[in-house]
Design goal:
- The chain has about 375 residues and is of the alpha+beta class.
- About 50% of the residues lie in helices and about 15% in strands.
- The protein is built from eleven helices and ten strands.
- It has helices spanning about 5-25, 30-35, 40-45, 65-80, 80-100, 105-115, 230-265, 280-305, 315-340, 350-360, 365-380, and strands spanning about 120-125, 140-145, 145-160, 165-170, 180-185, 195-200, 210-220, 225, 270, 275.
- It has a four-stranded mixed β-sheet. It has a four-stranded antiparallel β-sheet with strand order 2-3-7-6, covered by helices on one side.
- A hairpin with a 3-residue loop joins strand 2 and strand 3 (about 145-160).
- Helix 4 packs across helix 7 (about 230-265) and helix 8 (about 280-305) packs antiparallel against helix 9.
- The relative contact order is 0.12.
């Protein structure tokens, strides 16, 4: 086993760290408070290749491995999880799905500008009554010959207001159950497609989360991804990779909070010495560092398995489950170490604590990850 990173991986990690510190850190508190989408920062991320990291260069991507993606996601997430979720969705869900299952025409039309960061995409699965239960799609895509007639509502869609391309999961044949579901590429501006108000959220407040409404939207047949009825499999395969992205986001939130707590503990004095020299604080830091290191290894292992074209369903689910738990644990402790200052926005840790919670919910709740894991371990 080789635990060393390649020169290229180190370069990508350091570039992401530098970008996060110089471009994302200024204004991050204001963006959180005012729910401002980081438009300029996302544009720069696209120019640097962070929005199409794993896409083949012939389609405008950076052609990097998944390990590099995890390293970059961690660094971006340390500073601004609202920016990193845009990066995760565009890379893991939209670009990967299009490159893996799209036709050449779909790749040229949609993947190229997405990978270059000229536009961003959204992945539309969740509904008012179909979050974890993805088979219960109420959104319908009725086959009308050369097009589908799309009707329904999607909830909690990341990039909902700023995306140009939306991958929408919808039911075509109810009698076939999950085998009657399709994945369609929908463009902003199609007649009958309306973006609802932005959600007022606990965390990742800079990212734009919206409901989407479709009323008799005509989606051309050539915008279907895969064969008829492939939509559910498409969603599950895509989300398996998405777990790695969100796991690395959770890892970044945790490591960002830990670094702030460690620094503060060496500066703050109580009872005549730095609080880091009190065992109560030192042991907290030891636990935090250990949990983060374990989560990092799990994220990188899942990414490595993906790069080796192995089955990463189990490792990805484990990484997301554990990293999300670590993110919550570590951020709560970071606030505690900061004491009263931890409750104040200017010290950043309270925002990281709020941001951490969503990692246990979206792209498969922690309970769903346990279902995936338990099925795998009980299979034999």
């Amino acid at each position: 086993m080789d635990f060393n990173l390649t020169e290229e991986q180190i370069m990508i990690r350091d570039a992401a760290r530098d970008f996060a510190q110089t471009e994302l850190l200024p204004g991050v508190i204001e963006r959180d408070e005012k729910q401002l989408f980081p438009s300029e920062q996302i544009k720069k991320m696209g120019e640097l290749g962070f929005l199409g990291m794993m896409v083949d260069p012939k389609y405008g991507g950076s052609g990097l491995d998944t390990v590099s993606y995890v390293l970059a996601m961690e660094e971006i997430s340390k500073i601004d999880a609202s920016a990193s979720v845009v990066m995760s969705v565009n890379n893991s869900l939209v670009c990967w799905g299009l490159e893996t299952f799209g036709t050449e025409e779909q790749k040229q039309k949609y993947l190229v500008p997405l990978a270059k960061g000229e536009i961003i995409g959204a992945f539309c699965l969740s509904e008012p009554e179909a979050g974890s239960d993805a088979t219960s799609q109420k959104t319908t895509a009725i086959d009308k010959g050369d097009y589908y007639l799309l009707n329904g509502t999607k909830n909690w869609i990341t990039n909902g207001g700023n995306a140009s391309v939306y991958i929408v999961i919808a039911q075509t044949d109810v009698e076939k159950g999950h085998r009657g579901i399709n994945a369609l590429i929908v463009e902003k501006g199609m007649e009958g497609f309306v973006v609802g108000p932005k959600e007022n959220k606990l965390g990742i407040r800079g990212s734009d989360t919206h409901s989407l409404m479709f009323t008799d939207v005509k989606v051309p047949k050539e915008n279907r991804l895969g064969e008829d009825g492939f939509g559910f499999k498409f969603a599950m395969k895509t989300l398996a990779g998405g777990r790695i992205g969100i796991a690395s986001q959770a890892l970044g939130i945790a490591s960002g909070a830990y670094e702030l707590a460690l620094k503060y503990s060496k500066e703050r004095k109580a009872f005549g010495k730095e609080i880091s020299r009190h065992q109560a604080i030192a042991f907290k830091l030891a636990d935090m560092a250990t949990q983060i290191e374990a989560a990092r290894h799990m994220c990188i292992k899942a990414a490595w398995e993906k790069d080796q074209h192995l089955n990463y369903d189990l490792s990805g689910a484990m990484a997301k489950l554990y990293a999300a738990e670590v993110a919550m644990n570590v951020t709560v402790e970071a606030v505690q170490i900061h004491g009263g200052y931890g409750f104040v926005k200017e010290y950043h840790v309270e925002r990281l604590m709020r941001d951490a919670k969503i990692t246990q919910i979206y792209e498969g709740t922690s309970e769903i990850q346990k279902i995936v894991i338990s099925r795998a371990v009980l299979k034999d």
